Task: structure prediction
Amino acid sequence: MEDNQLIQARREKFATYAQMFPITHPNHFKPKDKAADLQDKYKELDKEALNAIDNPETHVVAGRVMLLRTFGKLAFAQIQDTSGRVQISLSVDSLGEESFKQLKDVLEIGDIIGAEGTMTRTNTGELTVKASSVLMINKTLRPLPEKWHGLSDKETRYRQRYVDLIVNEDVRDVFKKRSKAIAAVREYLIDQDFMEVETPMLHQNASGAAAKPFLTHHNALSMDMKLRIAPELHLKRLLVGGFDRVFEVNRNFRNEGVSLRHNPEFTMLEFYTAYADYEDAMKLTEELIAHTAQKVCGTTEVEYGEHKISLKAPFKKLSMKNAILEIGGAQESDLETIETIKAFAASKGIKLSEWGDYGQCFLELFEELCEEKLIQPTFIYDYPTSTSPLSRCHDEDKEWTQRAELFVVGRELGNLFSELNDADDQEQRFIDQIEQAKKGNDEAMEHDKDYIRALEYGMPPAAGVGIGIDRLVMLITNQPSIRDVLLFPHLRPEEGRQAAAEAQEEATA
Result:
């Protein structure tokens, strides 16, 4: 009700404004100066020095009014543009009595205005544009929330991110850093002679990762398709085609739950390099992350929650088996067979997948006992073959692959391995995945016959890396939830949320 009254009051002021100015949404005003540039340019000049300048430069600024104070024939408006804030002074002497009154009658916090004027400072030392002309660019109809930052309902902030960005400088800073991080990733890879490419979002087969796809339908071709869960198999087709170093930064879609770490739509970096193995991939990964942190934060030492994290290369390395022994508290005898693994898991209160083979149970044991304890950057390497259908096996032991995952603050940040380039072996791995699906693995990969055909033409030995960009940004910006680094995270429909809240209220009444 209060919001409706405030909006109605704003509409009444807008009606008053519309009577005075027939063009209510002008689009001819062109700002030439940014607030931050003005703050930097004049930071060394006090009021006396500014007022002593002969032929002072006229500056043209525009932004949203964030603070407004009026004193009879004088008013101060602090405006915010994409770079920061600067104050504007409006006075009868500078604008004329009629223009000043018109603005004073309708101007409110949240309105977007443009101004021209010279620089001065107030008696308190605040840098100010002394306006000689002011234009109302957009008389807004909704008031800004007064205490947006203090709202306990974060979902409202995610849902109305446009308001969140207006009033919270720290939120804007996160997304500026996200942009810098992606630029730094590209910079590093291009400097390493990688070529950026784009691969399809619509796939016939959902392969390249263990995940459930989103289904869709192509009307013109009359065929079912899937949003991609990973670009991996298309990128490796490019290795077959002769591009030795390729990367892609783009969206993946996985039909899974929403949590602090998961969003159905997320940004992934994948890069592949020919004539390399997983040792090379680990080195590239740690150097890329250190480079990105340095570019964005100015240091490789970052804080995440209560932890101080060093992203300086090289990172720690630990085999999965040794992790279970050293961190998980298992004995060698506990890992000998699937039966001993299940017995040890039961003693720890861990329930393993009923359909899982030895490798799957081994992996699940690691995930339950060790993952959340890996705080500093750590590569866990040598994964079971049955859980790594695209990875090259060790030549001396086919039960284990040349695969590693990078863990930081208890969560996976990246996945990498020496690529499987044996077409017959890959064919059998896909068949094994089909069998796993029949046993209950609903994230098993699908058979991609064209990818097998590509491998039959010959792919050079290679290594590949996948890094979750959203999780990387969470780490270097110290954000606890993936929603805090996504401009528009997925949420329940607003109407459904309201109905659920009302139902809960009735149930507790």
About this structure: The chain has 17 helices and 19 strands. The first strand starts at residue 59 and ends at 71.
